[in-house]
Amino acid sequence: MGANDFCPPRRLGHKGVALSAAAALVLLAFITPATARGPEAIADVAEQVIDAVVNVSTKQSVDLRGGAVPQLPPGSPFEEFFEEFFKNRRGQNGQGGPGQSPSPSPRRVNSLGSGFIIDSNGLVVTNNHVISEADEINVILNDGTTLKAEVVGRDQKTDLALLKVNSSKPLKAVKFGDSDKLRLGEWVIAIGNPFSLGGTVTAGIVSARNRDIQSGPYDNYIQTDASINRGNSGGPLFNLNGEVIGVNTAIISPSGGSIGIGFAVPSKTVVPVVAQLREFKEVRRGWLGVRIQQVSDEIAESLSVKPARGALVAGVDDKGPAKPAGIEPGDVIVKFDGKDVKEMRDLPKIVADTPVGKEVEVVIVRKGKEEKRLVKLGRLEDEKKVAAATDKKDASPESKPVVKKALGLDLANLTDELRKKHNIKDKVKGVLITGVDANSPASEKRLAPGMVIAEVQQQPVSNANELQQRIEKLKKDGKKAVVLLVVTPDGDPSFVALSLQ
């Protein structure tokens, strides 16, 4: 092959178009630096907001007389010190060392989290779990200034707290942005105090929105791959406009370090909570007074809810606002105060954000038809315990248990003897489950002896014969599934859909 026969390898561009070597290098030079550096705005944003991000230092008394080593974050500079200290105190056999008492006295333990200033007069947002057990709270500014903080208010359900510090000069504050405008893949910046290292900036993208991690009733976290570690809790998550669009709260990690899965409470949730803490020093949430569950495809088909959506009402509080409004178990709430309820977990968030005392329109699906109800919202009381008054009545008109089989279940009429045996409250009415076939759909749905079937297809049942007859009729009518209202011995109801095929 001669020199003139040499042909450089071709590079393929978009849709297989051949590029020359020079063109490929130009394209590579155009793409690679931006991809490697990330948005140049990150540095500008960090410089703009860093003085509003603070460290939250807490102190609490911990009883160490049991000889236990304090649980410190992995990598903490105090971890090795405490291990050596307690080793010397206990000795090799766990007893006190020479000249030492076997049980150390209570000590003051420090911990550090993060927060951010939202008002130049000294209002600071952080996580509730950062300050919940603290005897003393201090806020450390970016310049090292330490200010004593007081708790204005806190909210366990969203894990948020509002602090107040007094400063001789105005403080740098940041503003909230709209988390609803976030897009997947959008760049975000986390600033905080990981592993007690001090102000640290990390960047990443929005990995997911409205994430439910089963941490509380109002979960709708922003998921990000920006590095979030222990100590970042309570710190802000910024967009590239320098606005706070989330409060860094949780991570998923087997080691305690970042693996690229962090979660932040979105500003849409934070803003109203902070506003109420600021005004009332507590959060006042709307209360509907219903117990709800997810609308599965089977339940949706049986209740003629098409498409499957909404929140299924499993129970109604006798003293709640829903009762006088005419909302009943078996209703499916599909719209609340003009907002669509796409799935069960949407409803608690919508209700909680609705002002107490407001009269709202609730759209329900009952027996396949949409109906409207007007409800005047009550107030949700935290740790509310309502003792239901029950009247002593005869358990069942039939004294002998009549045993029947249906749906892989052994069924019996409720008697005084069976109520006593299974500790079933007097207010619970229906047909008792005495046995469950291990290979039946009922077993898969976790039905168990001692539970009571109160309704079949939204119709009350009082004895085993009636229940069996209802099931047979549904099969003859060609129904594919049946919806049962099942009640635990304590009286907690839930709907269960079982296949009839």
Notable features of this structure?
29 strands; 6-stranded antiparallel barrel; Pdz3 Domain; Thrombin, subunit H; 7-stranded antiparallel beta sheet; 501 residues; alpha+beta; 11 helices; elongated
Account of the 3D structure:
The chain has 501 residues and is an alpha+beta fold. It has three domains: 39-64 and 75-283, Thrombin, subunit H (Beta Barrel), CATH 2.40.10; 285-380, PDZ domain (Pdz3 Domain, Roll), CATH 2.30.42.10; 404-499, PDZ domain (Pdz3 Domain, Roll), CATH 2.30.42.10. 19% of the residues lie in helices and 33% in strands. The chain contains eleven helices and 29 strands. It has helices spanning 21-37, 41-49, 79-90, 128-131, 267-280, 297-302, 322-325, 346-352, 416-422, 441-444, 464-476, and strands at residues 11-12, 18-19, 53-62, 107-119, 123-126, 136-140, 146-155, 160-165, 187-192, 200-211, 221-224, 236-238, 244-251, 262-266, 285-287, 290-294, 311-316, 332-336, 339-340, 359-366, 369-376, 378-380, 404-406, 409-413, 431-436, 452-456, 459-460, 481-487, 493-499. The strands form six sheets. Strands 23, 24, 25, 26, 27, 28 and 29 form a seven-stranded antiparallel sheet that branches. Strands 3-4-5-8-7-6 form a six-stranded antiparallel barrel. It is elongated and about 80 Å long.
In round numbers, the mean pLDDT is 79
C-alpha termini separation: 76 Å
Strand elements, count = 29
Q: Strand-residue fraction?
A: 25-35%
How many domain regions?
3
CATH architecture of the largest domain: Beta Barrel
Query: What is the helix fraction of residues, given as a range?
Result: 10-25%
User: Remind me, CATH topology of the largest domain?
Assistant: Thrombin, subunit H
CATH class of the largest domain: Mainly Beta
* Cα shape: elongated
Q: How many helices in DSSP terms?
A: 11
Rg over CA atoms: 30 Å
Alpha-beta content class = alpha+beta
